[in-house]
Amino acid sequence: MLKKPSFKTPLIVQENPKLSIFVGVLLFLILLFMALIFFFKNPNLASNFSNNNSTPVQFTDAPKVQFFNYNISSASAALKPPTQVKLYDLKTDFSNNEILDFAKKLGLSSYTPDNGPTVVVYNYDDPANRGLIQFDKTTGSFSYESYGVLKPSIQASTPTQSALNILTDLNLNDST
Predict the structure, then answer these.
(1) What Cα–Cα distance (Å) separates residue 170 from each residue in 69, 86, 106?
(2) What would the pLDDT profile of 12-71 be if each residue is shown by its tens digit?
(3) What's the order of all strands across the beta sheet hosting 118-123?
(4) What one-character DSSP code corresponds to residue 139?
(5) What distance in Å separates the CA atoms of residue 18 and residue 32, rounded to the nearest whole number?
(6) Residues 155, 163: contact at Cβ < 8 Å?
(7) What is the pLDDT of residues 31-41, one digit of tens each?
(8) How far is CA 93 from CA 4, 99, 140, in A?
(9) How far apart are CA 166 and CA 176, in angstroms?
(10) Measuring CA to CA, which residue among 140, 139, 99, 141 is closest to residue 122?
(11) What is the per-residue pLDDT across 135-153, written as a single tens digit (0 to 9) for each?
(12) pLDDT at 77 (0 to 100)
């Protein structure tokens, strides 16, 4: 019959638990002593934890920026008040059909019917007209995000003219 091997560590004797506790406490004290020696031999660590209040911290206000004069050197950049101003009253009460007609001009057609003040119309299927519009029926404000390709029917040389051509294509341009 084979004898079962016995594994015992030389420091800790399993038959004596008091010796195990003593060895554990002794190892802890040795590690604590080594940490204290390292802490006090390193002057940077010791100075960070000391209560040396010889130089108090002083706080100052941030510098204030002041402009006394500002000149625009370019004559084209000078702001001039307009000679005429046109005021328009915008419609603030929109029906669902009016919102859907407006959204269809942007290529959006899908929406979830809701009786709340906000209507969301979207199109995720057609890559050329992919987008989303969120329309507030009570104020008339809206937010439009286009992920598709919206191009005017007539190409223009300037970005402003291109935008006006798109608005004209959508019947949203007011030439006055």
Answers:
(1) 45, 22, 7
(2) 445 677 888 888 899 999 999 888 887 777 666 555 555 555 677 777 888 888 877 777
(3) 110-111, 118-123, 131-136, 142-146
(4) T
(5) 21
(6) no
(7) 998 888 877 77
(8) 92, 10, 7
(9) 17
(10) 99
(11) 888 888 888 888 777 677 7
(12) 62
Instruction: State how far the Cα of 118 lies from the Cα of 152, in Å rounded to an integer.
Output: 29
Determine the 3-state secondary structure of 145 from DSSP: strand
Task: Check residue 141 and report its DSSP letter.
Answer: -
Q: How far apart are the first and last CA of the chain?
A: 111
Q: What is the DSSP string of 64-126?
A: PP--S------STT-----S-----PPP----HHHHHHHHHHTT--EE----SSEEEEEE-S-
The H or E element that residue 54 is part of is none
Predicted local confidence at residue 27, as pLDDT: 92
Q: How is residue 113 written in tokens?
A: 């019917």
How long a stretch of residues is the chain? 176
